[in-house]
Specification:
Blueprint (H helix, E strand, L loop, with lengths): L1 H24 L4 H14 L4 H26 L2 H7 L3 E8 L4 E3 L2 E12 L6 E12 L8 E10 L1 H5 L5 H5 L2 E5 L3 E7 L6 H19 L4 H10 L7 H9 L3 H4 L3 H14 L5 H18 L4 H18 L6 H15 L3 H4 L1 H15 L1 H4 L11 H22 L1 E3 L2 H8 L2 H18 L1 H26 L5 E3 L5 H17 L1 H9 L14
Parallel strand pairs: 4-6
Antiparallel strand pairs: 1-3, 1-5, 2-3, 3-4, 5-6, 5-7, 8-9
Helix pairs in contact: 1-3, 1-14, 1-22, 1-23, 7-8, 7-20, 9-21, 11-12, 11-13, 12-13, 13-14, 14-16, 16-18, 18-19, 18-22, 20-21
């Protein structure tokens, strides 16, 4: 029980740090923070060590938020955006251009600017440019352009500008005029190599497959959702299958399952090393986006634990990862939906799945595990999905049981076909014909099920106070539910997101 007590202390520290970040953003809510602080102090019995820990971690959370704010808004670029300044800029494209609704979204790290006929002045900061789809621009190019700056709040309007702030973007130009752009020879750029690899793989996908299979594989394997037709996205949303097309912890879990099956006859060390290598390669294939990096970190933590023969403490590992991710970028806590869903789904699997698993053992065709994972994941994610989308998929558990078993099969077959396509194009064409037929049948089945009356319910808006209150209770339960902590740790090992038994 000493170990459980240590875990409880770590959980308490992480929880109070997260509360500090939340209150750092909303300092106007001190009237909530003060009674909440007294409640927490009363809960822990006014023990001196926990009082100090509480105050230190709250201060760390508040301070981290304000440090990020100061770093983001201390430059000249924010002032120019607030003033709606029209200026000429020079800089470098620092992320992969994204095509959305026939518009290129380009993020530029500015190095200098000029207003009118004045001389150029040095500047640092990121600007989001919205350009026509053509001519195509590329990561790493130097670019010279002009336009009128607006703030992210003016650009997003009814949305959440914090997602732009999370990427360090403090200004937007809606209709820039590009004067010149060219590739810089700045030596080896690892991220440029990664994007070139992703581009080559995506090009091979579109060579081998027709629509809609090519878009489906591009989203499944490479995280490219922009080309997926809207009707397919709507069908997946109605059936609660959107997590398949959003690169997240689910895809990493699938990779762990696939490698566990492929290397069943090998030693634990070989299986673990091959799986970590596969996760890292998948990270490279998808362009190392922030959401994939977070999911990969959690997956590697699990597999690395098996490599070194250590018992993975699920909730403990999750909270430690959440702590470091929020410490690196505090805005993800309140404003990054993919981060929130990944954390909540994993936490729900760790807490809820062990409770309901025993009731699903008699589900026919061995589908109790898939049904349990689907139902468990929805327990903690439903309120936030309700808050954002006002929709609840009634048929989601059934749809996941029917369709999820096919996804690892499609991932493996399509990846093999793509790799073979670089060596034996004729063989890849034959394989792709079979895979495309199966995917077309799969997507048609998804569409038919989505057409069922009442498959998804449209719900009234959920007040933010209810949403925040629910997740605060979840945080309190995970942090202070001491009698139940032993249940998680006494099992000796807790599976993360249904970790394959082959890794035990």
């Amino acid at each position: 029980m000493v170990y459980v007590a240590d875990m409880s202390r770590i959980h308490f520290a992480v929880a109070t740090f997260l509360l500090g970040v939340a209150f750092g953003e909303h300092l106007g809510y001190w009237f909530v923070f003060i009674p909440l602080s007294f409640f927490c102090l009363f809960w822990v019995g006014f023990r001196n060590d926990k009082v100090i820990l509480f105050l230190v971690m709250i201060a760390l959370g508040v301070g981290r938020w304000h440090l990020d704010n100061w770093t983001l808004f201390s430059g000249k670029l924010d002032e120019l955006a607030l003033a709606g300044t029209h200026a000429t800029f020079e800089g470098r494209i620092v992320s992969e251009p994204e095509v959305v609704r026939q518009k290129q979204r380009i993020v530029v790290e500015v190095s200098s600017f000029k207003i009118g006929e004045n001389s150029s002045r040095l500047m640092s900061g990121k600007i989001l440019l919205l350009l026509p789809e053509f001519p195509e621009l590329f990561y790493g190019e130097s670019i010279r352009f002009d336009g009128k700056l607006v703030t992210p709040k003016e650009y997003v309007r009814d949305g959440d500008p914090q997602q732009l702030y999370e990427d360090g973007i403090v200004a937007v130009i809606l209709k820039p005029r590009v004067f010149s752009h060219e590739i810089l020879n700045s030596g080896l750029d690892l991220f440029h190599v990664i994007l070139q690899l992703k581009k080559a793989l995506l090009q091979k996908v579109f060579e081998l497959y027709g629509e809609p299979a090519s878009s489906f594989i591009g989203g499944l394997q490479l995280g490219v959702r922009a080309s997926i037709p809207k009707p397919i996205l709507d069908d997946f949303r109605v059936l609660g299958l959107s997590h398949i097309l959003a690169i997240s912890g689910y895809n990493i879990t699938l990779l762990i399952h696939i490698f566990a099956q492929l290397f069943t006859g090998f030693s634990r060390k070989v299986r673990s090393v091959c799986t970590i290598t596969g996760i890292l390669f998948f990270l490279l294939m998808t362009g190392m986006s922030a959401s994939v990096i977070r999911a990969a970190i959690m997956g590697i933590v699990v597999v690395a634990g098996t490599l070194f023969g250590r018992k993975i403490r699920g909730i403990h590992s999750l909270l430690v990862c959440v702590f470091f991710m929020v410490l690196l970028q505090p805005r993800v806590l309140m404003h990054d939906l993919s981060f929130q869903l990944s954390v909540l789904a994993t936490l729900s699997l760790l807490v809820v799945l062990p409770i309901i698993k025993k009731y699903l053992e008699k589900v026919p065709f061995g589908q109790g595990e898939n049904l349990g994972v689907t139902v468990a994941a929805q327990v903690f994610t439903t309120p936030i999905m309700w808050y954002h989308f006002q929709m609840f998929s009634v048929i989601s558990p059934v749809a996941n049981v029917i369709f999820l078993p096919f996804i690892p099969f499609f991932m493996l077959l399509s990846f093999v076909t793509i790799v073979v396509g670089f060596v034996f194009p004729w063989l890849a064409q034959a394989l792709s014909f079979i895979v495309e037929f199966l995917i077309s049948f799969f997507l048609s089945s998804v569409h038919l099920l989505a057409l069922l009356p009442g498959a998804a319910w449209q719900l009234p808006p959920l007040p933010w106070e209810v949403t925040v209150g629910f997740y605060f209770l979840v945080l309190v339960e995970v942090t202070f539910g001491r009698p139940k902590l032993g249940r998680y740790f006494s099992q000796g090992r807790v599976q993360l997101a249904d970790e394959p038994a082959n890794f035990r």
